[in-house]
Amino acid sequence: MTIRVLLADDQALLRSAFRVLVDSEPDMEVVGEASDGAEAVRLTRQERADVVLMDIRMPGTDGLAATRMISEDPTLAHVRVVILTTFEVDDYVVQSLRAGASGFLGKGSEPEELLSAIRVAAGGEALLSPAATKGLIARFLAQGDGDDNDPVRSERLAALTVREREVLVQVAGGHSNDEIAERLEVSPLTVKTHVNRAMAKLGARDRAQLVVIAYESGLVRPRVE
User: Fold this and answer.
1) CA-CA distance, 148 to 103, in Å (whole number)?
2) Contact 139, 199 (CB under 8 A)
3) To 10 degrees, what angle do helices 162-172 and 188-202 make?
4) How far apart are the first and last CA of the chain?
5) Within a 13 Å sphere around the CA of 95, how many CA atoms are in the beta-carbon half?
6) How would you class 110 by CB atoms within 10 Å of its CB: exposed for 0-12, middle for 13-18, buried for 19 or more?
C-alpha cells in the first residue's frame, strides 16, 4: 500500500523540500500541502491522508489545535500525526502528544529519519523520531502543569494484567518490542500482543498515547537527572 502523506508547514520552501523527498519513495506520496492548521484538517479529510507531518507554529489555527481536531474526529482514527519542530526539546511537544500526536521529529533530522518516521507512524509501531533519546518524553512530561496523576486513568490501569503493566513500563521507557522481549525473556510477538491489549483497555490510539498514560496515571515517574 502507498502511504498518503500530508505536509502542513507555513514555509513553502520546506514543504517543497519534503515533497521532493517523500515523492521519491515508491511506497509513499504527498497528497496535499497546507500552510495552516485549519487547512491541514480540511485536507486530511478531503485527501484521505494516512500520515500528517505537522508543524507546530503556524498562523491562525496552529499545529497543536489541528492535531487535537484530527485525533478527536472518529472518522480520522486511522490518521497519524508526526509533529515537526525546530527544536526537539520544545515545550509544545508534550502538549502535542497529549493532543493525540503519534510522535515528533526535529526539522534538522536526516532524510532517512524522516522517511523512517513516516513509515513507522503509518504502521502504528513508533513513538519518537530516531534522533530522540530514550526517556525524552519523561522530561517533557516533567515540564507539565504538575497535575500528571490522572485518577481516572489510574483506575483504568487496574484492568491491566501484571504482565501488561510490565510491558507498559518498558514502552514508557522508549524501548522497542524486540528490546522489551529481550528484557522480559518473551517473544516479540507476545510483547506486541500485550501492547495491543493495553492499548485497547486504556483507549490509546498508539504507543505515544500509551507513554503519556503511563506517566499521567503515575505508573511511571519522570526521571530526575
Assistant:
1) 19
2) no
3) 90
4) 43
5) 12
6) exposed
Residue 142 CA to residue 94 CA, distance in Å, equals 9
For all residues of the chain together, what is the average pLDDT?
82
Nine-digit cell at 45? 479529510
DSSP track, 88-101: SS-HHHHHHHHHT-
Which ranges constitute the DSSP H helices of the chain?
12-23, 37-47, 63-72, 91-99, 111-122, 136-142, 151-156, 162-172, 177-184, 188-202, 207-216
Tens digits of residue pLDDT in 67-113: 999 989 999 988 999 988 775 555 666 677 778 888 777 777 889 88
Retrieve residue 88's grid coordinates: 526537539
Q: Which residues contact 123 (CB under 8 A, 6 or more apart)?
A: none
Report the SS3 class of residue 185.
Answer: coil
- Distance between CA atoms of 158 and 43, rounded to whole angstroms? 39
> Which three three-digit cell numbers place residue 28?
509513499
**210-220: pLDDT as tens digits:** 877 887 787 87
Residue for grid cell 515537526? 84
Strands 51-55 and 28-34 turn out to be unpaired
Question: Judging by beta carbons within 10 Å of its beta carbon (0-12, 13-18, 19+), is residue 27 exposed, middle or buried?
Answer: exposed
